[in-house]
Amino acid sequence: xxxxxxxxxxxxxxxxxxxxxxxxxxxxxxxxxxxxxxxxxxxxxxxxxxxxxxxxxxxxxxxxxxxxxxxxxxxxxxxxxxxxxxxxxxxxxxxxxxxxxxxxxxxxxxxxxxxxxxxxxxxxxxxxxxxxxxxxxxxxxxxxxxxxxxxxxxxxxxxxxxxxxxxxxxxxxxxxxxxxxxxxxxxxxxxxxxxxxxxxxxxxxxxxxxxxxxxxxxxxxxxxxxxxxxxxxxxxxxxxxxxxxxxxxxxxxxxxxxxxxxxxxxxxxxxxxxxxxxxxxxxxxxxxxxxxxxxxxxxxxxxxxxxxxxxxxxxxxxxxx
Amino acid sequence: xxxxxxxxxxxxxxxxxxxxxxxxxxxxxxxxxxxxxxxxxxxxxxxxxxxxxxxxxxxxxxxxxxxxxxxxxxxxxxxxxxxxxxxxxxxxxxxxxxxxxxxxxxxxxxxxxxxxxxxxxxxxxxxxxxxxxxxxxxxxxxxxxxxxxxxxxxxxxxxxxxxxxxxxxxxxxxxxxxxxxxxxxxxxxxxxxxxxxxxxxxxxxxxxxxxxxxxxxxxxxxxxxxxxxxxxxxxxxxxxxxxxxxxxxxxxxxxxxxxxxxxxxxxxxxxxxxxxxxxxxxxxxxxxxxxxxxxxxxxxxxxxxxxxxxxxxxxxxxxxxxxxxxxxxxxxxxxxxxxxxxxxxxxxxxxxxxxxxxxxxxxxxxxxxxxxxxxxxxxxxxxxxxxxxxxxxxxxxxx
Lengths: 321, 399
Fold this sequence. Notes:
A: Rossmann fold; CATH 1.10.8.60; Zinc Finger, Delta Prime, domain 3; 3 domains; five-stranded parallel beta sheet; two-stranded parallel ribbon; 7 strands; 10% strand; B: alpha/beta; Rossmann fold; 7% strand
């Protein structure tokens, strides 16, 4: 059965099909050709091909029997390092059969693990080194502790260039009999911020309405796919209504599953659209930066965001005088 | 005969004399004057929050002046005939038995201005009547009532003080011959937020509990009581003294619970600059809490406890007086409720994530976009979505 989800249907299956990342591909390919790989660490933004390359690596190594020799785990979904350790143990207990003497474990979003969990992971990697290779992926390599980094070969995936993404989109359009205007492609690229998975998802959602992709169509889809605007929250703040602001904020976060980090990013962008004087905008941006910092250090995102809202309420009052 | 036990205490102990009405001396004075000067103004409006004694006051007036009450509610005004047949003659002529009458229009808020009759019917009644009309309302400041306000005397009934409610409950306990610890009565009085009826109902339901449940209930109330005192100390006094420094010693709650209580109630006491300062302190406390959790650096507890207590007290410029009815934090409950509602979303995301090499969390985050792709029936089949999941999807796509 063919996969109907385009991000999967058009996921590159060979090194040659991967767009961009030429440096990474060249080096990974030579490692794979020798039939022996060290532990790998893939670092880079979302939708640049980390999982794709990991999958190609195992397919090239194990050919038809890749499924038996490959375990995919996602650090942000597994409940704690103990669960991960147990799964690794079960999987790595038996030796791989065939030409390649090890199995491969792909641990996605490894930067979701705390430092302590990463220490435990390091031990696990050492213990199973004879039977297993790890491929870790993360957005920022700085969030991975040094002892792990030093045990891995690190590959940095770059944000995809517009022309690389264009190549992929043209291929999909040809294969699915779609037409797309240049402005529509620009809009797609703009909204997806270089994230190839997101752009393909947007394309498929748009194509479900019509095979002729226009900029209007894309705008319609994007507006349906966007969570409720934080602007409403900020407007409540500037009107001095803290209670309603925080109520609305909780609403948005819960209903659309938006994280505190994403909320604060949206707020930071929105500040410059507010009708307040420039000096105040600078102050509010500073406050937002401070709170984003505390968000990382603290334990309750919502309390941090409330502190930010209270700052906005105060600013709104002063702005009026 | 009606079984006395089953009468709600709030009815059973409705006041019958002016002196039984707690905390409304000012309103009583005004209503007396109104009756004395009748028919200078022919109607009086008693307005205020629920459970402060508006209807009770009307009945007390009737009892004290030995009058008969003719009660009407908003729905009666929809029927023009009914008004004129029942009230019409009665309001123009004296009762056959010569008894004085008072017309009570209860809860006028519900009356409509657009429907036939309704408000205009009431205004006409005020013109014609030869008996005083008492009108009760929660909110009388709606535009549709402007004419009515002009024609009537206005009396505001204030939220009852917790001390008045406490006194009231105490008397009821004596009459019912039950023993309830003083702290519990106090906690009920405070929790009622000025609503005497709510407090009495609360007391009655509590009195029916057996000892085991009562103990548990009391424990829960004690817990709330202890945090209430702590919040009171923090939010009312600006000076940081020894008491504020050790304000949470007596509170038998976890720190995480205390965080939530503080968070919920800051806006009740602080506005503007004080609000921003207090939340900044809370935010700093949370940062220290995060460091304690992550690094097991227990020394940081000192700072956490300072910012969650004294620093929040110090955010204010002047002392506060009076009692605030602090609210129980609801955020955790809301999160839980939303998670229940999100269950389908989660199971769909889980299935999608499995196929697409991404995390469940990522799929949840992108759900608004993914759901558009899942319009495709073939993809739904591929993911083996259940009937309920498909229905959930269709619902979100409709809205």
